[in-house]
Design goal:
It is built from 18 helices and two strands. By secondary structure, it is mostly helical. It has two domains: about 180 residues, Up-down Bundle (Growth Hormone, Chain: A); about 200 residues, Growth Hormone, Chain: A (Up-down Bundle). It has a two-stranded antiparallel ribbon.
Length: about 425
């Protein structure tokens, strides 16, 4: 009888598909689209706004803001996911998260000091941390085919990033001020808030049978020493990484002041390369292994940081070079960001995967704080040359350590336990 009901439910869902996904998944895709239009409109110019706002040690202050807000978002992803499971509700976290983010960040443009920027950006990231885990869970509940659902959602999210960067470029070209552009982001943000209200919550207790089939009998697995070793190494990768805000700051030296409106276009290029190459690199990692892909991404980033360490005068040639560097950064993101998460799934085993990702996001959040602060401090106290040399040295060490570490035995061990 249950099989008949399941079949009837699937048939009903299929009649209500939009672009191959269920209506609620498509609506959540639209929510992410409008939210990313709003977010990326700000993010593509925010480093420039902060640098203009701060008189003393601007790059260090930028690193402080990036580090604190990134750490806050990553830590809250795990906490909010646990809380939503605890009360068996997702929609309150999703609505609250999107509302907090989209109503706070537009007012960054009116900030009289960097402290106000930090407070509002932290509020925005608090909202992101609040909503992300619950949103992904709700998508999985509404999905007819999970891979297609998450793929469509990611595509709409990335499309929003592209549109947001393009809008920032157009507004800068029209000589809008940073403040005016940032506040304009409230309009797509409001669209996202209205749309999310139409999504109904799902009672997860009705999915116990499905969850049990997928995860197996619940049991308390220990996160072993080898897995902690992987988390530490992936954390070192995060510490040796370069946040794109510092690339945006450095790229000002590659173009004349009259072409500053090109920076959102460069930012857009990174998003496009990331969007195109992510599924390609993911599929390739399934065939040849995760490590070669991650090492190739880190190597490309290393090459980029070496280029960025050299002084350069703005010219047609320098514009060409910075375009290449932004494209290389997109390759790095596509090779390291999603593949690291896949590595976690390989090594964690399904019965402890949730906690494993929790540890991973916690470590990334805490480590990114130190990485941004230290890089910004070196940039301001010494020069961009020493800052990028420092990152290059760290990356070189990281590539060597990651290359010589053998995780194949851990993967085999965990597969036997699944």
């Amino acid at each position: 009888m249950s099989e008949i009901n399941d079949s009837h439910q699937k048939d009903t869902q299929k009649k209500r598909l939009i672009l191959g996904v269920s209506v609620p998944v498509f609506i959540m895709g639209l929510v992410s689209f409008f939210t990313d239009v709003s977010s990326e409109m700000i993010q593509s110019i925010l480093p420039l706004f902060i640098i203009d706002l701060v008189e003393t040690n601007p790059t260090f202050i930028l690193g402080l803001i990036v580090g604190i807000t990134t750490a806050l978002a990553n830590i809250l992803k795990g906490v909010s996911g646990w809380m939503s499971d605890k009360i068996n509700k997702r929609k309150p976290f999703i609505v609250a998260g999107y509302s907090v983010s989209n109503l706070s960040k537009p007012f960054i443009g009116f900030s009289p000091s960097w402290e106000f920027v930090l407070g509002l950006k932290a509020t925005d990231r608090f909202g992101k941390g609040l909503r992300t885990s619950s949103r992904d869970t709700l998508i999985s509940y509404y999905a007819v085919e999970k891979g297609k659902a998450f793929g469509m959602h990611r595509a709409m999210d990335t499309l929003g990033a592209v549109v947001g960067s393009l809008l920032a470029f157009v507004f800068l070209f029209w000589a809008w001020s940073y403040s005016k552009i940032i506040f304009f982001s409230i309009f797509p943000g409001l669209c996202a808030i209205v749309l999310i209200l139409f999504i109904k919550d799902v009672d997860p207790t009705k999915l116990d049978e499905t969850k049990l089939k997928y995860y197996g009998e619940p049991k308390v697995d220990k996160i072993d020493r080898n897995f902690i070793k992987l988390i530490i190494i992936l954390g070192v990768i995060e510490f040796a990484s370069l946040d794109i805000v510092f690339l945006q700051v450095r790229s000002r030296d590659f173009i004349s002041s009259g072409l500053i409106f090109l920076i959102p276009v460069f930012y857009l290029l990174t998003n496009l390369v990331y969007m195109v190459l992510s599924p390609v690199m993911g599929s390739l990692s399934d065939k040849i292994g995760r490590k070669p892909i991650i090492v190739s991404g880190l190597s490309i980033l290393l090459l980029s940081t070496i280029f960025l360490a050299f002084p350069i005068e703005s010219s047609f040639f320098s514009i060409f070079i910075i375009i290449i560097i932004y494209a290389m950064y997109g390759f790095y993101l596509a090779s390291v960001d999603p593949i690291s998460r896949a590595y976690i799934a390989d090594l964690a085993g399904k019965n402890k995967r949730g906690r494993a990702y929790g540890y991973y996001y916690l470590s990334v959040g805490l480590i990114s704080l130190g990485e941004s602060l230290l890089f910004g401090l070196i940039y301001d106290l010494f020069s961009f040359v020493w800052a990028f040399i420092y990152i290059s040295i760290l990356l070189s060490i990281c590539i060597i350590v990651f290359t010589v570490t053998d995780f194949s035995k851990i993967i085999q061990k965990e597969k036997l336990s699944i």
